Amino acid sequence: GSSAEVYLVRENDTSGLYALKVIPKRKLSGSLLAIETVMAERNLLLDLRGNDFILQVRACFHDSRNFYLVTEYHPAGDLHTLLLMKGSRVDAVRFYMAELLIALEHIHSKRVVHRDVKPENVFIDIDGHIVLGDFGLARKLAAGQRTVSGNEMFGTPACSPGRPYGREVDIWAFGVMLYELITGRV
User: Fold this and answer.
1) What Rg do the C-alpha atoms of the chain give, in angstroms?
2) What pLDDT digit, counting tens, does each position of 43-69 carry?
3) Residue 1: what pLDDT?
4) Where are the domains of the chain?
5) pTM of the prediction?
6) CA angle, 52 then 123 then 60, to 5°
7) Torsions phi, psi of 14, nearest 5?
8) Does the domain spanning 79-183 belong to CATH 3.90.1300.10?
9) CA 118 remoteness from chain centre
10) Which tens digit of pLDDT belongs to each residue from 140-165?
11) Alpha helical stretches, state H, 14-148
């Protein structure tokens, strides 16, 4: 997100590489809602642990200045880089998007809506499979949810202000993303 920076870090004991998301507390303006948002991302990722297509949390902690979230690192990059920058092939798009549907089905079965599905938030693991990440805007679904969030380009018409929304937000973004990956334009 715009209030966080992500660093590549190495664990001393194992030499394993991880992504460290650093969220400065000062950028949260002391807002209780902003702090709850950071904690919600952590809690959602912890709740979604165990699925190969969901970014896995390794640790989370804070000090007087920052919140920290340690997650898996995926050196192969993301779908945006892999397919849009290097050129997409229909068979590769079909493979990655099928896996993304499995990831979305999993989070939706846990009553979670991602709200920011886009190629830059779908990472590729070392074995060539997708990993859905960046749950900073994700929320646990509640009856009549009434907030709007996410990327304007991938947003659904169902998310107009004041209208309840649910899983359709992610499914709409999935469709826009599929179109973009196949045609190269939105």
Assistant:
1) 16
2) 898 899 889 999 999 998 888 899 899
3) 47
4) 5-72, 79-183
5) 0.83
6) 70
7) -110, -10
8) no
9) 8
10) 887 665 555 545 555 556 555 566 67
11) 32-47, 79, 90-109
**DSSP secondary structure, 126-163, as one string:** TTS-EEE---TT-EE--TT-----S-GGG--GGGSTT-
* 5-72 topology per CATH: Phosphorylase Kinase; domain 1 (3.30.200)
What pLDDT is stored for residue 182 in this prediction? 86
Instruction: Identify which of 140, 137, 176, 142 has the alpha carbon closest to the alpha carbon of residue 156.
Output: 176
Name the active-site residue from 78, 116, 134, 170: 116
Q: Write the pLDDT tens digit of every residue in 70-104.
A: 999 999 999 988 876 666 688 889 999 999 999 99
- Distance in angstroms (rounded) separating the CA atoms of residues 57 and 44: 10
What is the b/e burial string over 8-44, where b = at least 16 CB atoms within 10 angstroms of the residue's CB? eeeeeeeeeebbbbebebeebeeeeeebebbebbbeb
116 is catalytic: yes
Dig out the tokens for 179 from the structure.
């179109």
